[in-house]
């Protein structure tokens, strides 16, 4: 039976990026995790290490961290925190600079790799379990990665909101054209999308759910 990871290796696993599973640690720690089957090294430069499904299961079995499991919308890699896509919170001031664009591209590519690693058939065209457990962040990342502008305190763009319905988020946009563009993006990203009308305001919005097949 394989030896359990050391305390230092467990800390590396716990600190993995929640979206991509990318690991940071010493070369010896990363090599040991790869040897144990808890991580794999990406074949393309810079050859970063990522959690395997076994590594993710081990991390999920760890005691819950003190911080909330869902990153705050304003946290981003550029600010020194964990990457989180902009969901369009009213108090956000979205960063649209080149550094943010690189972070979003990296996060999206990492999510596609996570799909490939966790789907039995290696498919990348439909959401994975992580996305179904982090609906708002997953939908927001798909939109931001496709170039849509998030709303915020001083911006008029998309907003992604949780709903009482299981595995569904609501997506709002400033006009019909923007709403249809968001729908097209989410459908390409593997989401089922329907357009609805709010009873009180009569505004149109999207109801989006991760596609399973």
Strand content: 5-15%
Which word captures the global form? Answer: elongated
Structural class: alpha+beta
User: How would you state the average pLDDT, rounded?
Assistant: 83
Major beta sheet summary: 4 strands, antiparallel
Number of strands: 6
Note the gap between the termini.
35 Å
State the gist of this model.
With 213 residues, this protein is an alpha+beta fold. The protein is built from seven helices and six strands, in the order ααββααααββαββ.
Structure report:
- By secondary structure, the chain is of the alpha+beta class.
- It is built from 7 helices and 6 strands; from the N terminus they run ααββααααββαββ.
- It has helices at 7-14, 27-35, 53-60, 98-118, 129-133, 135-145, 176-188; strands spanning 39-41, 49-51, 159-162, 169-172, 191-197, 204-210.
- It has a 4-stranded antiparallel sheet, covered by helices on one side. A two-stranded antiparallel ribbon has the order 1-2.
- A hairpin with a 6-residue loop joins strand 5 (191-197) and strand 6.
- Residues 201-213 have a biased composition (Basic residues).
């Amino acid at each position: 039976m394989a030896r359990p990871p050391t305390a230092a290796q467990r800390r590396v696993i716990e600190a993995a990026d929640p979206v991509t599973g990318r690991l940071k640690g010493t070369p010896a720690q990363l090599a040991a995790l790869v040897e144990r089957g808890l991580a794999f090294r990406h074949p393309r430069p810079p050859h970063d290490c990522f959690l395997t499904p076994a590594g993710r299961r081990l991390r999920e079995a760890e005691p819950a961290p003190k911080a909330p499991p869902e990153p705050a919308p304003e946290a981003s890699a550029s600010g020194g925190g964990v990457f989180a896509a902009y969901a369009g919170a009213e108090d956000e001031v979205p960063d649209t600079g080149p550094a943010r664009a690189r972070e979003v591209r990296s996060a999206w590519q990492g999510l596609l790799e996570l799909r490939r690693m966790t789907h039995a058939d290696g498919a990348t065209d439909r959401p994975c379990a992580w996305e179904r457990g982090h609906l708002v962040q997953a939908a927001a990342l798909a939109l931001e990665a496709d170039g849509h502008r998030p709303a915020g305190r001083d911006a008029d763009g998309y907003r992604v909101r949780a709903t009482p319905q299981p595995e569904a988020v609501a997506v709002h946009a400033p006009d019909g054209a923007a709403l249809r563009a968001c729908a097209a993006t989410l459908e390409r990203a593997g989401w089922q999308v329907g357009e609805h009308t709010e009873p009180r305001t009569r505004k149109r919005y999207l109801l989006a759910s991760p596609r399973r097949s």
